[in-house]
Known about the structure:
By secondary structure, the chain is mostly helical. The protein has twelve helices and no strands.
Amino acid sequence: MTEDISQLSAVERWRRALGALARVVANPEQTDQVLVFSSYANAGTMSDRIHHFFDDPRGQRLFDEHRTIDSRTLDLDALEALPAGTLGHEYARFLRSRGLTPEVFDAPPKKIHNPRAQYVVQRIRQTHDLWHVVTGCNTDPAGEIALQAFTFAQLRAPSTAILAVVGTLRGVREVPSLPRDVLAAYRAGSRAQKLATFPWEDYWATPLTRVRELLGVDVRPRAAA
Length: 225
C-alpha cells in the first residue's frame, strides 16, 4: 500500500508541497504538479473540508449514490446533443474545444486512503471543469488563477489561496487587470452557494443561466470562449 499523506508530518508535507510549487512556477504547464502541490498543501486542513462536505445532505447523498463524473458515466455525444445553452451542452463543448477528456480523473487520488476523504477530493477534481463553465473562468493562466481565488472562497483550501496569490504576482505585468479579476472571483465565490455538493448530473438539460441562478454565481470574471 502506498503511503498515506495524512500520516506525514507537517514539515514533510510542506517540504514536498513547496517542491511541487517550485516546479509549477518554473513551468506552469506541469498540471500534474499542481495536483501534487494541492494534495500536500491541503492535507493538514482536509478534515475540515470533509466534515463541511458531509454536513450538507447533498454531499452525503452524492457519496451514498457513488456519484462520479468520469469516462464511465459521461456520454459527451449525448450531452453535446442537448440544446445549446444547457449545462450539459456547454460542458461538452467546453471540454472538446480545449481537447479535454473526463478520463483524467477516473482513478482515485493517490496517497489518500480514507474513503470519505478520497471521494471528496476526487469529486472536486472531477467537477473542476464544471466550475470553469459556471463561473466563466477560462482555461488560460489568468482564468485559472481567477478560479483558484473563487475556489478558495468556497473551500478554504490553502493551495488555492497560494496559487491565486503567486499567480497574480507573476501574471500582473502581462495582464494588468488580473488583480481585479481575482478579487472579483473571490467575492463571487464568497457569495455563491456550495458548488462542491451540487448534483451537477441532475441539471445537464437545465439552461446554464438557470444553473448560475441556483448557485448564486452572479459575477463571471473572465468569459469562457
